[in-house]
Prior knowledge:
The complex is a heterodimer of chains A (210) and B (391). With 210 residues, chain A is an all-alpha fold. Chain A has one domain (2-209). In chain A, 79% of the residues lie in helices and 0% in strands. In chain A, helix 1 packs across helix 7 (117-128), helix 1 runs antiparallel to helix 8 and helix 2 (33-60) packs parallel to helix 7. The model of chain A is unreliable at 96-105 (pLDDT under 50). A two-stranded parallel sheet of chain B has the order 1-2. Chain B has helices at residues 18-37, 45-68, 71-98, 105-109, 120-130, 146-160, 164-167, 172-179, 197-212, 216-221, 236-260, 264-268, 271-277, 299-303, 311-316, 328-332, 352-387; strands spanning 102-103, 230-231, 285-289, 338-342. Chain B starts with 17 loop residues before the first helix and ends with a helix. The interface between A and B is medium-sized, with 28 and 21 residues.
Amino acid sequence: MQGFFLGLxxxxxxLAYCAPALxxxxxxxxxxxxxxxxxxxxxxxxRLLGYLMFGIVAWGLNRMIVSQIALKDGFxxxxxxxxxxxxxxYGLINTHTSCAGRSIGGLSARLIGKRPQAIALSxxxxxxxNLCPPFLLALTNASEFNQLSQSMLFFFEFFLGTSxxxxxxxxxxxxxNRPAFRVVGKLAAVVMAVYxxxxxxxxxxxxLFL
Amino acid sequence: xxxxxxxxxxxxxxxxxxxxxxxxxxxMLLLTALLLSQGKLPVxxxxxxxxxxxYVFINGLFFLMVYTGKVHRYRSVLFITVAVAFIIAFGAxxxxxxGSMILKEEDILAGGAPFCHLVIPAVIIPAVFTKTIxxxxxxxxxxxxxxxxLVLWFGASVALGRGWCSWVCFYGGLDxxxxxxxxxxxxxxxxxxxxxxxWAVLLVIVLTSALTFSPVYCEWLxxxxxxxxxxxxxSFKVLVQxxxxxxxxxxxxVVLPVLxxxxxxxxxxxPFAAFQSLTNKINIFTIGIDREKCVDCKxxxxxxxxxxxxxxxxxxxxxxxxxxxxxxxxDRCPRQAIQFRLKxxxxxxxxxxxxxxxxxxxxxxxxAVGGGLIYGALLRILKLIITGSMF
Lengths: 210, 391
């Protein structure tokens, strides 16, 4: 239960890290509480996937990413860049109904139309791959385990502990009946994408040029 | 005292008589003297000259506002002057205190960054949850302290609502100034959905400030860093931030206002403006449109500097939540169907008294902030002319 309690003690910080990506997305979708809960669950599923993927990679590479601090900023920078592209892509699609920009349409619109959880899942994976302080703490703790199964179980418990803080998030669905909130959500996703883009560029640029 | 009767004559406003105008200006003469002098008249001749010039300028504008009934025209002169004076006075102050306009790391660590109202929305969540103000300033007893600004903002928000953005904000005059350079808008049709962008920026800065525990707007998005203090470019990050500040300033405060004739920074980007719109809910003053007089000429919609009127809102007889009470629509309406009014009183029953009741607190807050800045800037300019140095 060590992972669960660690997650419980640091979950508010996890929520703070994920909210800038999650809240604009949920607002932009403009769904009710039930659908918002499903999207939130998809996001959390993606986040768990990100955690477990990272756990496997870290274990497989003998915790190289943690020990190689020089690589850390570059790695997070790349994750931020992918996150920025995903959010910009989300913010600018289906724009004929809710955004002031022009519609990109085509494949992206069809994909989101058929698989609305795909974006939530992708955002979850990408935020799960971010080396935020609670995650680094969990990684340090997990590094004490020799077996992969123990390490994975620890991350799963950690995920459960942090996820409790996400329970109020579907309440975003209560304000989603107004079209204005959808527009705000879509625009916020684009603004957030710009923020992640610059953060990613600075991290990658800092690695390359300094 | 009843200043005027009910304004019922379409197309012709009933003006106040001259003795009544003088009587209406008398309290402002006393209040501005008190606010500018802070109970102590200057002794040095150069300070006396700056004081008299400021005093005459401010009261002259108030007199003209009451005499002509044109609120926006003279408010705009004051508003633009305050913004220019702010840059001069603030810049000179930084040069005097720090020796440069660069915000150094040691200044940040010493809590020496001046606090401005644009940061307020970003500090609320961290302050509520951790009792920490995420800004490297001082609470009291220093230039532009956090407590001083918060008290001023709270008082003005209760009295004026989002009127703050057209009467008190010392940045807004810049894009208003550039927007007035536009005789004929080049860009006329702006998708109304862009009006929601300030809310999106507000959402982002509130969330990211809570995440990073730093004032994200100041670090990344404030266009006014270009003309106030700025960080020394010592890293790739600061270089990117500086490029962003300059780009936002040139596009939102200079180019777009000139092309659209609107205050694009205030109406389409500023997150504080979106936040301040909420205070219109608790403020008793608003703008009312008399539907019986309105002929749907759309002049008010086409000239509103902050995009606070649209066809639906005009039909409903009230502006959108984002109204800054600048008075542009009141001045512009050819039928005088638009008036300052008190909430709860039908616009058809609105008198000049409602306008005067709004003008007093609006002008007092404008003077409380802008008067000192104009005085400070004039003093620096006079010193420069007479002694060859601003300090």
